[in-house]
Specification:
Blueprint: E1 3-8, H1 12-27, E2 34-40, H2 64-69, E3 73-83, E4 88-93, E5 98-102, E6 105-108, E7 112-114, H3 122-125, H4 132-144, E8 156-160, H5 164-181, E9 188-193, H6 207-217, E10 219-223, E11 227-231, E12 234-237, E13 242-244, E14 247-250, E15 254-256, E16 273-274, E17 287-289, E18 294-295, H7 309-328, E19 341-345, E20 351-355, E21 360-363, H8 365-379, H9 387-392
Parallel strand pairs: 1-2, 1-6, 2-3, 6-17, 8-9, 8-14, 9-10, 16-18
Antiparallel strand pairs: 3-4, 4-5, 7-15, 11-12, 12-13, 19-20, 20-21
Helix pairs in contact: 1-7, 5-6
Amino acid sequence: MTQNIIIAGSGFAGVWAALSAARAVALAGKDEAVAITVVSPEPSLHIRPRLYETAFDEMAPDVGPLLAAVGVRHVAGRVEAIDSAARQVTVHGNDGATTTLPYDRFVLATGSGLFMPDIPGLKEHAFNVDQLASARALHAHLTSLASQPDTPARNTIVIAGGGFTGIETAAEMPARLQGILGPDAKVRVVVLERAPAIGWDLGPVPRPIILEAMAECGVEIIAGAGAVGVDAGGVTTSSGEYIPSSTVIWTAGARASALAAQIPGEHDALGRVAADSYLRAPAAPGIFVTGDTALAATDDEGHVASMSCQHALSLGRVAGHNAAAELVGLPLHPYSQPKYVTCLDLGPWGAIFTEGWDRQVKLTREEGKAVKREINTKWIYPPAPDRDAVFAVANPDYVIVA
């Protein structure tokens, strides 16, 4: 009887879980005994780390041929319900039909979504760069500003959230908006950050360089204040200031996919399932969690994987391998990712490349930008649909960033 591995999601973790699972099955010579299925709305991998850019044609590569090359089936739809007791999932297909798929092993790789709190007017009036469709909507809106009257609101962009995504988005915006409105337009780009300083999660080491770069790019920072209200004309801050703006961009925080809540066991404040060292959900036998849905230790020093493609690429490989390994009799591989780097894009200024959880700065400006280009255009993209070449880099201990 054929055994089934179901993988929900075709993002970074989902795609690599599928490729790694297929590799393990092939290593064991069990290709005919184990079927691997990926469920997602379409067989594409959205390159979310690049959605602050505008090269939209490059941001959703088709992974259909890649999955087919390693014998993985794709089902067009969404997993809507997980029945861990019966070991089955309910799928709502793109065709409108609802089906039930049994599994022997299930891998949750549905990622995360932007957290939108109940701030008056936020959902109605704010933009974001969380998904490809929303990034396209923001771009269309920005382009339309050229036909509107020249006002402070038209010329002002407010980014609510000064974390990684907020910084990268803000650094691009002065030049991007001037490219639309003209070089003589008096544009204003403001970052609102509730924490005492921008890039609070990035720590104190790179912060002076980030501030230097933001000032050079023409970005204004308002720290210690957040958005408490958004309307068609602007944003109200927690300090009582009203900033006229036709463009408010929300970048403040993410939460694990709502499907994670259906998996029994411990969850963290971001909704992630606490995983064991093999990325199993301890309270749900047969279920693995990976990518942004997994709360997983990266080392023995107390660090946990962040919601980033850097961690998702390795998490996916490990979860996929282990899901298959349990079925075909291969040794399980513990997840470990002690090497940690960040590369923060800072628009025309360049980029900062750091190493370690204390983020020691190694490269800046154009040298950092060169690394960021490599990451954004090569390292995080799926490989060509060549089975042997894919299996050579789909092992669970493969390291993307050296």
